[in-house]
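Hi R.,

Here's the chain you asked about this morning:
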Amino acid sequence: MKNKIFTYDTTLRDGTQGEEVSFSAEDKIKIAKRLDAFGIDYIEGGWPGSNPKDMEFFEKARTVRFAHAKIAAFGSTRRAKNRVEDDANIKALIDAQTPVVTIFGKTWLLHVKEALQITEEENLEIIADSVAYLKKNGKEVVYDAEHFFDGYKSDAAYAVKTLLAAQSSGADVIVLCDTNGGTMPWEVSAMVAAVKQQLSVPVGIHTHNDCELGVANALAAVQQGAVHVQGTINGYGERCGNANLCSIIPNLALKMDAETVGTEQLKKLTELSRYVSELANLKHRKNMAFVGESAFAHKGGVHVSAVMKTPKTYEHIEPEQVGNIRRVLVSDLSGRSNVLYKAEELGLKIDDRSPAAQAVVEELKAMEHYGYYFEDAEASFELLVKKHTGEMKKLFELERFKISIHKDSNDSEARSEAMIKVRVGDDTEITAAEGNGPVNAMDKALRKALERFYPELKDIQLTDYKVRVLDSQNATAAKVRVLIETKNGTSSWNTVGVSSDVVDASWKALVDSITYHLLKKKA
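And the predicted structure, written out as tokens:
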């Protein structure tokens, strides 16, 4: 029988303490619903009384029916000078009306003596009073032993006394916290094993990532008997972040054979990770284990050749187990296997033994050496393949374009105008357009010129434009790479152009973008 490990998510509280992480009360409700649907056991919603946003969350949460998860309110033990029934923090925790309350207390004598400036015995009374009062009010109590590992190193006997104070007052689970994130896995392992022998209630673990060991420390604790694991989605949290549940959960399920959210739910992990990133308005980190876009991406030709035969040669699990996908990247490191795999993925037919396959590889390597980058420009790569397989059609030809920029004074806005002449078959079209920059003016002029022949161009719009300087040591003469994202309402695609002139690089990416769209429409 598998060992059940309870998952406790603190994205909505501890996660929001991370730099650049912010959620509205409505965002938090949306995330809580997704966490519940995913199968998380406990969802920590915030610290009631600390700010209006968290109070709004708890009010809204009372109207939501959660199918699986229990909502927890977070706060501290009572203040030293307060009676527990009069303590504002304790009152706010009860008023939040959550089935679970999580409180933290001091374990490290440094904090007891320097931060709280109370005696050792007074600290034990504070812990016992707070837990007992919350239990008296019908709460399931999770006790977070703050700075436990630092406190244990300083005075193991006293650190354990604080845990026993919580246990004797009715705490349902005692969580050992590596609050500063500085403990090593072997230390966590030894201390959890020692504490387990002295407690009769379940033990949990809460780790931070200051030494890049948050996940490793959490797993080390589970190995020694912890059955409750706290963390955040994507590892969001203060300083270097909290232990990442998107790594902990699949490691528990797939590497340690523990019961967590279930096999089918695990397949939704990548989707959940990206959803939380989206609501946080943060870019989803590509290099995250299990859920990152690069987690199952292969670039080296030898790797791709092996993966095409047997995926497990370079993949420790099947990407589908966590809802991710395998990706093959094309670059100057690519071999024929990369090109063939990518072409097949894009629905293109190319013979392994054909001259076209080798021609694509050779041109790709030459272009990447020049500065092109096809990993984020699959539309340009598809056009490159079609050029060598004979599927590329010349839909229009530039005869000339001219860009002019006018600025009347230091304080005035610069104005850009583009004049363009293109040939489509035997016809030519000359148009001009103004824009808020040379590239915008060129984009407008080109599409204006082509719309008489290709009215479907009215459906597309440029949605992103990025410029990167490739050789900054050449200053204003440096080569630049332009990446353009275009959408047509139902799909999007990226194209790339490189030149020592930013307008020329933009032109190349823009032509690829329009050509790609037209070829897809005519396919």
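The CA atoms of residues 18 and 237 lie 4 Å apart.

Let me know if you need anything else.
M.
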